[in-house]
Design brief:
The chain has 29 helices and 30 strands. With 1014 residues, the protein is an alpha+beta fold. α26 (864-885) packs antiparallel against α27 (892-923) and α27 runs parallel beside α29 (970-1013).
Length: 1014
């Protein structure tokens, strides 16, 4: 086949040129993202019910939603959590569920349930979770002094949001910190009483003044006119001019008995940038958009905003494209230094500048054609797929070096140029195909891991398969063709002699080889002792998800665990920020967040603080100061203070606790009272537990209506409830609607203490006699459950267990539950991790079997594949040793480095065994040699032939990666463990390929020969 293609050089070159041009066009069309657009199989239903308790939200809303959604197709888990004024239902589906259809199905069921929910409840929000929901950047909008924050909110909602949405690649713009204008009506109780009026008279007058006649028209001859009431109100002055009529018939303007004015609606949450209040706009990209083009467009828009709206300050923060830029930069660095060092090493070992020139053409060609595979498989350019390309570049260089060296060796043996190109490529074709298949056999099965891990490995596996497949095509077609074309034009004749550097290296190899093979058994025993020692080093390594990268930013998530207002929450956060020194940037989301896509716990008592520092050391110092301040001044607060999560952390973070023990009271189907629960928890089987959300308590005021007294004084219950809602709730009289803008008219809430209001507010009986409201309402302070948690089986309470091996006590937990008539079950991330580990072990066993079968087919032997398998632990041990010496951990990046290194090691071992097998066949033709002499001569000659490509591959790979060790920044921090793994593995792996593989070949071949004689 290679001969056939080389005989048609113009057709082949034009085909490759067409592929490169087409790949360049496709490359410009590929989306560039931070992460693959993975559909997380979760949907969150959010409920906002002002002035409602957790019990009310659970009984009146969440229970109905759970019962209505329990029949959803593919539903795996259902969790709900009811808090004060807010509630959430989190739906988890089987992985692989069509989330577009599930999202539509959930919305349809919510629409059917709306009629069964409380009338004053706004429609629950349905949020679909996706990796593209992670915002690519945040725009801070800060009003300058003397600028109305309500006007800035309108600017952000009506102008800035729409202009950003028009940018190419933007899918959603979300805002937090908006302020809304309302018209507040403050009654003058004394004036009302003097005129014999009540607040109800005010309310009826305002509602009548804002009435509408929708859809009513009158006919006037041939014309038809739609009616519009002229009594509608627009401003506070219009409200004050409305007539109010008392029960006795007196009519006065509303301004005589109440004051109407514009006010800012009471905020349930704030956004702070530094110490200033403002808004934040989060920008989300489309899955098909290019992040590296979107961010510059966004920055350009901010420049326009600064010029158009000088009364507002704009700032871009938390730019997530930094991670992607780091990955792209690392790939460019690898290609650049890989090409430079490959050129230098090839020149040292081959002494001809034309061969490095061929490498310089083949490497970028292979990479560019790989993007064509991305396009057809629907893969975006992201951190995961780029790491797959980085994985394959080492193998790509390896294949090119092997083919070029083999062609050069054929020329040196006296073959004509054309025949050298054909035979040189043909000779290593089988071995290179096997090495690529073995690499894919180890890596591709990881795609079948369940959950997000498998989805992420899909992008990486496609990238690896793409670049390795393309590298084979380039190695067997383009490289021989380029070699033939370039060397045919240049000087003719055979290349004679070796560079001095290689001659000295060959002499050293010969001496060490002779020393090792004179002590074959001892050397072999020494290598086998190194295998468990090297693998044992792995037990000393720390394990973590991502490597320790320099994170100059930190976050503080805090729950004050006190019934404070949003304004008090804001003031506390401001005092905390003022106590922090030397920060570069600070932003805080206080209380309830207005983001449409926020799926966490919305609570007035919670806040999230983000701090960016000039350096990590400064961050660590200030975090400790902040921690001491929290412990000293706010002992009731619970908080999480640490590194700010990046996109990877957000993707892999889980809402599940590590190990949770749940129980349900199946008889009452409600939470067990706190007094009883405390006694039961005293004899819980372990002391290493913390209360789950369903056991957390908060201080609250409980009102009790005195029914007997109300009946005695003829006070309707509805009157008392309505009066309480006016006093302490948000009582909306009516809404003024103008072209999509809604301005509520609300009764002004009295800011006095509720006890004083109960003592001073009057309520009217059916005979118009008035009494003090406090006479009919009793109250007491009581600790109540902060949240009510439930799953598809009903309400549950739980504790989170922190034992290292919690499963051993599962029987004790069940026995404890039975003793208290409770149904107990255990859940948590512990069980998912265990299942993932089982899957991983099973998949790796399948990978090893595939590797063995491929090698057995290549070598036509059941024994020789074991040589390759035994080389892998030595390389892994070398990688572990370097990781330990450098203080690195075993993480995702070092694991990728292991796969890169093992791919190169397998490649070298396969080629060496293949060469020895061929030489054995050639030497066996000499009848003067014994079987032992044939074997030893083939092992020795095979080592000399493969010495050059093995050294070139290892040295070029190691030298190309060394600059990353001395680099700084996010990209270098991410890639450094990968570099240590590759360098450590290849250093040991080179010695393995040079000496351990020949020793193992000698050992197995000798024993096979003995068995064949028997």
């Amino acid at each position: 086949m290679i001969r056939f293609l080389l005989e048609r050089p113009i057709a082949v070159m034009m085909s490759f040129l067409a592929l490169v041009v087409f790949s360049g066009i496709v490359f410009r069309l590929l989306p560039i993202s931070l992460l693959p657009p993975i559909d997380v199989p979760q949907i969150v239903v959010k409920v906002t019910y002002p002035n409602a308790s957790p019990e009310s939200i659970e009984q009146n809303v969440l229970q109905q939603i759970r019962e209505g959604l329990i029949t959803l197709n593919g539903l795996e888990e259902m969790e709900s959590k009811a808090g004060s004024e807010v509630g959430t239902v989190r739906l988890t589906f089987d992985y692989g569920t069509q989330m577009e259809l599930a999202y539509i199905d959930v919305n349809e069921k919510i629409d059917r349930l709306v009629n069964t929910l409380p009338r004053d409840l706004t429609r629950p929000e349905v949020i679909r979770i996706n990796t593209s929901d992670i915002p690519v950047a945040r725009v801070q909008v800060i009003p300058k002094a003397d600028t109305d924050p309500v006007e800035v909110s309108l600017l952000a909602e009506n102008v800035l949001k729409k202009r950003i949405e028009q940018l190419p690649g933007v899918s959603l713009v979300d805002i937090n910190g908006k302020r809304e204008r309302i018209i507040s009506v403050e009654p003058d109780d004394e004036a009302l009483a003097a005129l014999g009026m009540t607040q109800q008279n005010l309310i009826e007058a305002i509602q009548a003044g804002n009435a509408e006649l929708p859809g009513i028209s009158v006919k006037d001859g041939q014309f038809r006119y739609f009616l519009r009431l002229a009594t509608r109100v627009d401003t506070p002055a219009d409200v004050e001019s409305l007539p109010v009529r008392s029960a006795k018939g007196a009519i006065v303007p509303l301004g005589r008995v109440a004051k109407a004015r514009y006010e800012t609606q009471e905020m349930l949450g704030f956004h702070l940038f530094g110490l200033q209040e403002g808004l934040v706009i989060t920008v989300h990209k489309q899955a098909s958009a290019k992040m590296n083009e979107l961010i510059p467009e966004l920055k350009a828009s901010l420049d326009y905003f600064r010029a158009d709206y000088p009364q507002v300050e704009f700032e871009l923060t938390q730019d997530q494209s930094n991670l992607l830029n780091a990955a792209i930069s690392n790939l460019q660095t690898s290609l650049l230094f890989g090409g430079i060092f490959a050129f230098a090493v090839l020149f040292l070992f081959i002494k001809d500048f034309r061969i490095p020139l061929i490498m310089g053409v083949s490497l970028p060609t292979s990479l560019l054609i790989s993007f064509l595979v991305f396009y057809f498989f629907g893969i975006s350019i992201n951190i995961i797929s780029l790491s797959g390309l980085a994985l394959g570049i080492g193998m790509l260089i390896d294949n090119a070096i092997i083919v070029l060296d083999n062609i050069t060796r054929k020329r040196e043996s006296g073959l004509p140029l054309f025949e050298a190109c054909v035979q040189g490529a043909n000779e290593v074709m089988g071995a290179l195909i096997s090495s690529v298949l073995t690499t894919l056999a180890v890596f591709v099965p990881l795609v079948f891991l369940s959950g997000i891990s498998g989805a992420l490995f899909y992008d990486q596996a496609v990238a690896v398969a793409a670049i390795l497949s393309v590298s084979l095509m380039v190695a067997f077609v383009l490289l021989p063709l380029l070699y033939w074309l370039i060397f045919r034009i240049g000087k003719r004749g055979n290349v004679q002699g070796e560079p001095k550097a290689f001659v000295k290296t060959l002499g050293l190899y010969e001496r060490v080889f002779a020393w090792v093979f004179s002590r074959r058994k001892a050397a072999l025993i020494g290598f086998f002792i190194l295998i468990p020692l090297g693998l044992g080093v792995g037990l000393l390594l720390r394990s973590e998800g991502l490597p320790e990268i320099e994170k100059p930013d930190a976050t503080l998530e805090i729950d004050w665990n006190e019934p404070i207002s949003a304004a008090q929450n804001r003031d506390r956060m401001l005092s905390l920020i003022q106590g922090v020194r030397n920060y570069s940037q600070a932003e805080t989301d206080v209380g309830v967040r207005q983001f449409l896509l926020f799926d966490g716990d919305n609570s007035i008592q919670k806040s999230l603080l983000y701090l960016l520092f000039p350096s990590e050391s400064e961050k660590n110092t200030q975090i400790e100061v902040l921690r001491k301040r929290l412990e000293a001044d706010f002992p009731l607060a619970t908080y999480v203070l640490g590194d700010a999560p990046n996109a990877f952390d957000q993707l892999f973070s889980s809402n599940l606790p590590f190990y949770e023990v749940r129980w349900k009271d199946l008889t009452q189907k409600k939470p067990i009272p706190a007094e009883k629960m405390k006694g039961w928890l005293d004899d819980f089987p372990t002391e290493n537990w913390t209360p789950g959300p369903g056991l957390q308590e908060e201080r609250s005021v409980v009102f009790s209506l005195l029914a007997e007294k109300m009946a005695l004084y003829q006070i309707p219950v509805e009157n008392v409830q309505e009066q309480l809602s006016r006093l302490f709730g948000v009582f909306t009289i009516t809404d003024i609607r103008r072209f999509g803008e809604v301005t509520p008219i609300r009764l002004k809430e009295n800011q006095d203490r509720f006890e004083d209001l109960l003592r001073t507010t009057r309520i009217y009986a059916s005979d118009s006699t008035s009494y003090l409201l406090g006479e009919f309402v009793d109250f007491q302070y009581r600790n109540q459950y902060k949240y009510i948690t439930a799953d598809r089986g009903g309400i549950y309470q739980s504790v989170e267990v922190a034992d290292p091996n919690p499963e051993k006590m599962e029987t004790d937990y069940i026995r404890w539950g039975v003793g208290h008539d409770l149904a107990v079950e255990t859940q948590g991330q512990f069980f998912r991790d265990r299942e993932n580990l089982r899957q991983l072990i099973g998949i790796l066993l399948v990978s090893v079997l595939l590797l063995y079968f491929i090698l057995a087919a290549q070598f036509e032997s059941f024994v020789q594949p074991l040589i390759v398998v035994f080389t892998l632990p030595l390389g892994i041990g070398g990688a572990f040793l370097i990781l330990l010496i450098t203080g690195s951990s075993l993480n995702v990046m070092s694991a990728i480095g292991l796969v890169v290194m093992l791919g190169i090691m397998v490649n070298d071992a396969i080629l060496k065994i293949d060469t020895i097998n061929r030489l054995k066949v050639e030497f066996a033709k000499d009848s003067s040699l014994s079987e032992k002499e044939v074997r030893n001569k083939a092992i020795h000659a095979g080592g000399k032939i493969r010495l050059k490509p093995i050294l070139m591959t290892s040295i070029t790979t190691i030298l190309a990666l060394i600059p990353i060790i001395f680099s700084s920044g996010l990209g270098a921090d991410l890639q450094r463990p990968l570099v240590y793994s590759v360098i450590g593995g290849l250093t040991i792996g080179t010695a393995t390929a040079l000496y351990f593989v020949p020793l193992m070949y000698w050992f197995f071949d000798k024993n096979v020969g003995k068995r064949e004689k028997l």
